[in-house]
């Protein structure tokens, strides 16, 4: 008997994404750059449109109806995020510009409040620059040391090395849920358990995970979880930092100014309670509302079917790659989500990207803001096709027909 394969109506899903129905260089667009950013369903576009057409006002301060509506919409979106991540309280949901700002907020707080000379921060060798550089800066500012857990030739974190590099000096372990450059799904449950056993706090960079797998921050028992709205079918310029209440209370303010204070005099200021303590200035209200709409839209998607569909896309791509002469996959982890990073003998990844664009196919070529990963695999760059729920098996096949032309053209 074959395993149950949930049915996934990809054509019905595609109809909800207006941008997909266009031609590029005279060919139907095949969008395979979803790890960089996902496209937006009509429901998200409509929510932003409706907000600007009907409710636009500043939040948390007006006494008038529009301001009340904008505030209510924003706080409703915060509740959607809370529920999406299964956070315990809305006070634990901080809106940021994205994953990058969320990690910077925590790293800045650790540098000021937690890290002391001799302390350690542990990351892994598969991180995006957004989960490397803020920790380098925090270590430089505090005298702490940055430790890096190795990855193996498949692009999996070497758990024994991760464990060995944890010590009683480790104040925080920060690592990706899913690697953007390789697609590796890290065994974060195990990594969190190891870090907590060592007494370290845990930050998960969830930028590449949230569109592909459900997340429950309480079940995970992590202290921080960072994500970007634009990789989750929502708008750019908005993201989330989930933080455990006690940690958010303990960490110092990040940016200061309006909206994050309770009382100001020239002698001192008293800061607002969570979550506003970390949300200085007029927020990206339309972005928050768009993100809330994306999450509500995702609630209507059959997740087991979505995951099975994306697994089929990646399995087909991996199988076709094995049949293409000169093609090498970079990153062969047992568990992967959404990403096929590859090299083609004798062709620079950028040339692959340019050639595919003329076929209407959008991929990314480069170091994917993960230069240490490129160094580890001894390549200057890779070509990367990355999948979302609206991609089809036919698109994967078209990608490989085009790659075969690239190969023959450059041979
Ligand atoms: N962490 C990971 C794992 C990422 O993939 C990215 C963005 C970030 C952090 C930063 O997210 P941002 O929204 O704050 O910029 N990754 C990519 C990518 O792979 N291609 O373009 C952006």
What is the topology?
Elements: H1 10-14, E1 23-24, E2 27-28, E3 30-31, H2 42-55, H3 65-85, E4 93-96, H4 99-113, E5 120-124, H5 133-142, E6 145-149, H6 159-164, E7 170-176, H7 188-197, E8 201-205, H8 217-220, E9 224-228, E10 239-243, H9 245-250, E11 261-264, E12 269-271, H10 285-299, H11 303-322, E13 327-329, E14 339-344, H12 349-358, E15 361-362, E16 364-366, H13 371-376, E17 382-386, H14 393-410
Helix pairs in contact: 2-10, 3-10, 4-5, 11-14
Bound molecules: ligand 7TS.
Features:
411 residues; alpha/beta; Aspartate Aminotransferase, domain 1; Aspartate Aminotransferase, domain 2; 2 domains; 4-stranded antiparallel sheet; 14 helices; binds ligand 7TS
